[in-house]
Write a structure and sequence with these properties.
Number of helices: 16
Distance between the termini: 34 Å
CATH topology of the largest domain: Aspartate Aminotransferase, domain 2
Structural class: alpha/beta
Number of domains: 2
Shape: globular
Strand content: 15-25%
C-alpha cells in the first residue's frame, strides 16, 4: 500500500476512532498498526508487514485466519439467509448448533440461549440464576459470589460480578453488591497458610454463613484471564463445585476465554470433572469469525421457566442478532474442524515446544513467574525478582515488551505487567519456538535498558 494511503488511514483513525481499553492520548506515540488482511496464523498490515497473531486477535482465533472450511460455510449461508430473528421464529443453523453444543458440553447442559458476546452470556447467566430461585419459591436467594480480581465482561451485571478495580472501580455506584472470595494467586499469596487451603476455607465459611441467601457463585475455571492469566491450583475448581452442591448454590462457569481448547481440553471444567449449572461460552465459539455467545443451562434450570403465558415465568431477555445464522454456520464449521482435524491432539507438539521456550523465559532476572495452562500463558514482569516488587503502572513495562515484539514480527497485548500469550490452536512448532524465543529477546531488550 502506498505510504500516503497509510497516512490518510492513520489520520482518520486519530480523528474518529475511540479504541477500547486504550489511553487515546498515548495511542499515536506507539506507531499504530493498521491490519488489512490475514493468512493462517499471521496478520498483515496495510504496509505489507506480517505478524504472528500471538493473542489470537484477542483470544478468539482458533484454527487460524481465512480457514477454508469456515470461509466456505459462511459463504454458503450467505446464499441462504444472513439473518433472521429467533423471537417467534427458529433457524436451521441455530438449531443445529444448539444440538451440537449440548452434545459436546459437560453432561447435563442441554439448553442453549444465544447472545452476542462474553459479557452478555454472563449477564444472562446471572439473570437466569436470579429468576430461577424466585420461581422456585426462594426469593431470598438473590446474592452472588465471585472471586477477587474476577473479570466477566463489561455490561452492568457482568461488571458487578467482576472485581478488577482498574476496570471496574469507577462504576461501583452503578453495580449490585457481590460477596467476594479470595483469588488463589499463589505467586503473590500473602499467607498465612497455604494458598489453596486458605482460599477454599474462605469460600466454605462464606457459603456456610450466607448460603441460604446466595443464588450463584461465578468463576472462570482454571485460569483467571484478564486478572493476569492467574492459574488456579489443581483441585480448587472441583472443591468450589462441591461447596456449591452442599449449600444449594448454582455454579456459573465462565468459559468465555477458557473454552474451545484453550486450556488443552474442549472446556476447562472437564479437567476437574465439574458439571456447572450454567456455562458461558463466546470468543472461540465461531473460530474467531463472527460475534456469537451462548449460555448453556441444565434442564432443571430451564424447567423453572415453564408455565402458562399468564404466569409470566418467561425469561424476558434477548438480542436483535441472537443466534445469527452466519455466526452459527461459522461455529458449526469450527466445531466440525475440531473433530476432523483432531485439533486438541494436533496442538500438543506446538504446546510442548512453547513450554520448552518459556522455561528459558522463566529464568530471566525480571520475570517473576511464567504461568501456563494449555495455550493460555502469562509472563509476569517484576522490578525486583527477590522481593517481587512490581513495576509502576505508568512504566508500561508489559506494553513496551509488546512493542518490542512487533519488531520481531509478533502481535501481543499485555495485561499491565503481565505479557499475555494466547496463540491460535493451529500454531506450528516452528511458530511456537519463534514466539517463545522472541518473548525472551523482547524482555531482555526492555528490562536491561
Amino acid at each position: 500500500m502506498p505510504p500516503d494511503r497509510h497516512r490518510r488511514l492513520l489520520e482518520q483513525d486519530l480523528r474518529h476512532l475511540w479504541h477500547p481499553f486504550t489511553q487515546q492520548q498515548a495511542w499515536a506515540d506507539d506507531d499504530p498498526v493498521i491490519i488489512e488482511r490475514a493468512e493462517g496464523n499471521h496478520l498483515i498490515d496495510d504496509l505489507g508487514r506480517r505478524y504472528l497473531d500471538g493473542v489470537s486477535s484477542l483470544w478468539v482465533t482458533v484454527h487460524g485466519h481465512r480457514k477454508r472450511e469456515i470461509d466456505e460455510a459462511v459463504r454458503a449461508q450467505l446464499d441462504r439467509v444472513a439473518h433472521s430473528t429467533l423471537l417467534g421464529l427458529s433457524s436451521v443453523p441455530a438449531v443445529e448448533l444448539a444440538a451440537k453444543l449440548a452434545a459436546i458440553a459437560p453432561a447435563g447442559l442441554t439448553r442453549v440461549f444465544y447472545s452476542d458476546s462474553g459479557s452478555t452470556s454472563v449477564e444472562i447467566a446471572v439473570k437466569m440464576a436470579y429468576q430461577y430461585w424466585r420461581q422456585k419459591g426462594r426469593p431470598e436467594k438473590r446474592r452472588f459470589v465471585a472471586l477477587q480480581e474476577a473479570y466477566h465482561g463489561d455490561t452492568v451485571g457482568s461488571v458487578s460480578v467482576g472485581g478488577i478495580d482498574l476496570f471496574h472501580a469507577t462504576f461501583r455506584d452503578l453495580l449490585f453488591e457481590v460477596d467476594r472470595i479470595p483469588t488463589p494467586y499463589e505467586y503473590r499469596w500473602p499467607g498465612p497458610g497455604e494458598c489453596l487451603e486458605q482460599c477454599v476455607r474462605a469460600a466454605a465459611e462464606l457459603l456456610e454463613r450466607r448460603g441460604r441467601e446466595i443464588a450463584a457463585l461465578v468463576v472462570e475455571p482454571l485460569v483467571q484471564g484478564a486478572a493476569g492469566m492467574l492459574v488456579q491450583p489443581r483441585g480448587y475448581l472441583s472443591r468450589l463445585a462441591e461447596l456449591c452442591r452442599r449449600h444449594e448454590v448454582l455454579l456459573i462457569c465462565d468459559e468465555v476465554a477458557t473454552g474451545f481448547g484453550r486450556t488443552g481440553t474442549m472446556f476447562a471444567v472437564e479437567q476437574e470433572g465439574v458439571r456447572p449449572d450454567l456455562m458461558c461460552v463466546a470468543k472461540g465459539l465461531t473460530g474467531g469469525y463472527l460475534p456469537l455467545a451462548a449460555t448453556l443451562a441444565t434442564e432443571e434450570i430451564y424447567s423453572a421457566f415453564l408455565g402458562s403465558v399468564a404466569e409470566k415465568r418467561t425469561f424476558f431477555h434477548g438480542h436483535t442478532y441472537t443466534g445469527n445464522p452466519l455466526a452459527c454456520a461459522a461455529a458449526m464449521a469450527s466445531l466440525e474442524l475440531f473433530e476432523r482435524e483432531r485439533t486438541l491432539e494436533r496442538m500438543r507438539p506446538a504446546m510442548d515446544a512453547l513450554a520448552a521456550e518459556l522455561a528459558n523465559v522463566a529464568e530471566l532476572p525480571h520475570v517473576g513467574e511464567v504461568r501456563r495452562r494449555g495455550m493460555m500463558v502469562g509472563v509476569e514482569l517484576v522490578k525486583d525478582r527477590r522481593t517481587k516488587e512490581e513495576y509502576a503502572y505508568g512504566d508500561r513495562m508489559g506494553h513496551r515488551v509488546c512493542l518490542a515484539m512487533r519488531k520481531r514480527g509478533v502481535i501481543l497485548r499485555p495485561l499491565g505487567n503481565v505479557v499475555v500469550l494466547m496463540p491460535p490452536l493451529s500454531l506450528t512448532v516452528e511458530e511456537a519456538r519463534h514466539l517463545g524465543s522472541s518473548v525472551r529477546e523482547a524482555i531482555v531488550e526492555v528490562t536491561e535498558q
